[in-house]
Design brief:
The complex is a heterodimer of chains A (288) and B (355). By secondary structure, chain A is an all-alpha fold. In chain A, 75% of the residues lie in helices and 2% in strands. Chain A contains 13 helices and 2 strands; from the N terminus they run αββαααααααααααα. Chain A has helices spanning 10-36, 52-59, 61-91, 97-111, 114-125, 131-138, 149-177, 181-190, 194-222, 226-231, 243-253, 257-282, 284-287, and strands at residues 38-40, 46-48. With 355 residues, chain B is of the alpha+beta class. Chain B folds into 2 domains: 3-232, Rossmann fold (3-Layer(aba) Sandwich), CATH 3.40.50.300; 239-354, OB fold (Dihydrolipoamide Acetyltransferase, E2P) (Beta Barrel). In chain B, a hairpin with a 2-residue loop joins β9 (202-207) and β10. The chains are: A mainly alpha (288), B alpha+beta (355). Chain A binds chain B through residues 180, 182-183, 185-186, 188-192, 200-201, 204-205, 285, and chain B through 46, 49, 51, 71-72, 76-78, 80-82, 84, 86-89, 97-98, 101-102, 129, 145.
Chain lengths: 288, 355
Amino acid sequence: MNNKTAYPKAWLFVLPVVALVAFNALIPLMTVVNYSVQETFGNNVFFFEGVKWFEEVLNSERFHASLLRQLAFTGIILAIEIPLGVAIALTMPARGIWASVCLVLMALPLLIPWNVVGAMWNIFALPEIGLLGQMINGMGIDYNFTQQPMAAWFTTILMDVWHWTSLVVLLAYAGLRSIPDAYYQAAKIDGASGWAVFRYIQLPKMKRVLTIAVLLRFMDSFMIYTEPFVLTGGGPGNATTFLSIDLVKIALGQFDLGPAAAMSLIYFLIVLLLSWVFYTLMMRDEEQ
Amino acid sequence: MTLEFRNVVKRVGAEVHIHETNVAFASEGFNILLGTTLAGKTSLMQLMAGLERPTSGEIWFNGRDVTGVSVQKRNVSMVHQQFINYPNFSVFDNIASPLRVAREPRAEIKRRVGQVAEMMRLSAMLDRKPNELSGGQQQRTALARALVKDSDLILLDEPLANLDYKLREELRDELPLLFKDRGCTVIYATTEPTEALLLGGHTATMHEGRITQFGPTAEIYRRPAGLRTARVFSDPPINTAGVTKKGTRFIFNNRVGWDAQGARAELPDGNYTLGIRPHHVTLDHTGPDTVELEGTVLVTELSGSESVVHFEIDGQTWISQSHGIHPFKIGAAARFHMDIEKSKLFDRDDKLVAA
């Protein structure tokens, strides 16, 4: 039955996709690869440098510090947003008008452009005029996110939780709603406790959507740029200079194209690697 | 073990899910709830289980009023249409779960799970997870979970509906044996009249939140008390036609007539509804008292050894079910023979007057 016929014209049909992927991903990526192995002093003159920039980036303390900040930030927001999102989804009504009201309210933060979120929180948290800043200072706590690293971190994390927990809520909510009522009845007949229902029915049934939520939140938060850029500009000092902010500083601020390109590639590989690790860990049981 | 409903009504908001119901279910064999989707079978089962409370009325079990007793204290098992198992438990842990909640000793759990697994032919797959099982095995696991504890009441809510044909037949044959001599009341909900007949026992026919009739299955099939019950308990749907009795003759459509036989001759003159199941309206002569009908063929469904012909007489649709393959062209004229002795007569209030 293996009578494949050669049909050269078929390539024509694939061409649009090939072109799209090429212009979209391959060519820009190759440009970056190109920069990452060369040195230039302007005038379009390039010298081949091999892996020099990669060595430099990997050995730079500045990169280590940014990476560490990035990992800490992502770790903290995942640890807050995933459980919080699941908890909120569990308390939301299953049906009726309030279900719709809750869903719309939840979706609102997701509809606001990222730089607007940054600007909003910047003003909201300013100690002199912002509602949040005034409130915290009013409670007798010295708070100024433009000057204190701790306050800057607190504000950035709070902003991200406000902006993105909704995504986890919506995904978890969809997962919960896909569980047939019969499961809850069966558990009730078995005499299972509320915790057992969560642990042995709801959580396993939500596993797939939660995996997606963790992956999305991981990748997005690991590449976060706009919001902290608008909120703190990476400061005070370097306190909130995450990887992409640092990258932009090197590439556009200092115009060190070689090191910036090398850093981009390393950055990309880290995201890819960690996403793969997350996915493999969470899907381990399913594969067996 | 007796389960009794006394004046039970279930309302949800402005909707009545169960109209006033009085019934005492049989303690032996299957009690079948037969009715279409939304007839109230599941609502009734949830009342039996204690998952829902009746709006008014009482539910008695073994001479005890259990109306307000919670599910956990009722000692019931339930199997649903969907295959409900704990997704990340092995088959063993799934079957053991009701025993673990009841804090049975380990050795006892092992013994009883092993015994039920043997009975349900699951012994070889006790270590597997539900998503590694076929649909039939998943439902067997759910059944095993219901069987492993000594429930007084077992509720089976269309347990075979999601299985493919072959598995359904296989499990249907096993079910009555599994529940034999357990000393528990078994309630079985189904939408299929054939399934009710195959399982035997008692049947309650349901329509729009009411039990229209309850009694031994064969009895209800043969003598449905009303047209409603006859409709619920017939697949393909029962044919109905208005007939007039004048003297000793019945007249249908002003054209077709036949002599009233036996007790039917005693009925007063007037209008009646004739109900006759499709397999008594055939293409060939069967009984001695057949009445010929002429109709226009609408659709013919041919299955293996049977022909189901939908035809029309003066704008009314009839269904005939005959042995053998009889292909007809749409619009063709055909003759059908109605075995009038097997028909049922209902009065103007749709009550049975002759079967």
